[in-house]
Amino acid sequence: MPWPPSEAVAGESSRADQALVRQHSPWSIKSVIRFVIGGELIVPEHAWIWTAQLTLPSRRGAHMPCMQEILETLTNLGWEGRDLFAVEMALEESLTNAIRHGNRLDESKHVDVECRASRERFWLRVKDEGNGFRPQMVPDCTADENLECPGGRGLALINAYMTSVEYNECGNCVTLEKIRSTATD
Fold first, then answer.
1. Highest mean pLDDT range out of 7-21, 40-54, 61-75?
2. Element housing 115 (H / E)
3. Which residues in 5-34 are b (16+ Cβ under 10 Å) and which e?
4. What is the distance between the alpha carbons of residues 45 and 166, in angstroms, rounded to a whole number?
5. pLDDT digits over 78-135, tens only?
6. Quick one: which of 13, 81, 138, 172 could link to 132 by a disulfide (CB 3.0–4.6 Å)?
7. Residue 15: strand, helix, or coil
8. What residues contact residue 68 under an 8 Å CB cut-off, 6+ apart?
């Protein structure tokens, strides 16, 4: 089946229906196309323009050059405003959490970072060598009784700014994705 699907392949849906679903859907384009067509459609891997893999030492500030390179790359790909700020916040929190909380600043441990970017999407996987944690056990930092507690704000920011956030079973690896709200066609 050709990609992208033509209006004839999409079946009953009109272009207006497809645009409406895309505009209001929180899911990836793969899920939106499945919903519009009403059947199973296998979509090829996203066409990433930039990818990177690196290993960071577990010391304060070690993530800064990595962040800078990723943000410069996204800027060169046309990311700006809220979308770029969202990625910056998620990068800062996920990388810092892996270094400080996951590896506890133990310089014998490392943080593995894998990143992909395009004009429309940003994807990041951060894995530390720590014991992991259970995200659902982190107290809600917006609850009245937790407003003055220092923990949980970074996770709340990541969840608020990213399109999707997933943790591995152990809790020492997080995968983030941001679909640009101001994506270009």
1. 61-75
2. strand 110-117
3. beeeebeebeeeebeebeeeeeebbeebbb
4. 19
5. 999 999 999 999 999 999 999 999 999 999 999 999 999 999 999 999 999 999 999 8
6. 172
7. helix
8. none
